[in-house]
């Protein structure tokens, strides 16, 4: 109970900070929405060649994962500001659990991602997406898990670098291959065989395919198994890294 109470206190403070300045939430939501309206129609002739009847049923899951990954990757920038202002050190001298300091922030990020996901899915249905409710629920849950993993990794990276100038290029270096090799925008089957082989080693590719498969109403096959395994594995690893970083005496 103490851990939950401490996590809630941190979450409540972080949520209040976001509500005072919702610019990052709006900016994070604007990019996938623009992709949905401007890039989605261009996919219709491409996905038709792949035997997919509805372009948005294919495209919205990819945008959902993109929202979870890229939005969460920037969570650490606010943490650097808190560290510079002495907030992190003030929290660390309290008897609060170091895990609660991270979990409270992750809860804020997950709640924010959940609201954005609801908006994105709602727009997808408005544009003609066809997806069963249970498939959407499972896809959103996978996205929240991956988003929490990316947010935890971002927080850990922020406390490790303690500099926006260092963190920004690192994130950009990670985001580019993820965007190109995970099949978020275009299916990897359109690429050459060597490119498909490389993308098989990209964990996010399996997550994207798992979310896409769930939106199609298919809960069987390797994509669902490996996508779920990678999502859970990334979450556990990232939370461990984030908690360990918060526990460091020199953090």
Task: Supply database-style keywords.
251 residues, mainly alpha, 11 helices, 80% helix, elongated, Nod_factor_ABC_transporter, ABC-type transporter activity, transport, transmembrane helix
Give an overview of the whole structure.
The chain crosses the membrane at residues 21-43, 55-80, 110-130, 136-158, 170-190, 223-242. Belongs to the ABC-2 integral membrane protein family. It is a multi-pass membrane protein. By secondary structure, this protein is mainly α. The chain has one domain. It contains 11 helices and no strands. Helix 2 runs antiparallel to helix 3 (55-73), helix 3 (55-73) packs across helix 10 and helix 6 (98-126) packs antiparallel against helix 11. The chain is elongated, with a radius of gyration of 19 Å. It starts with a helix and ends with a helix.
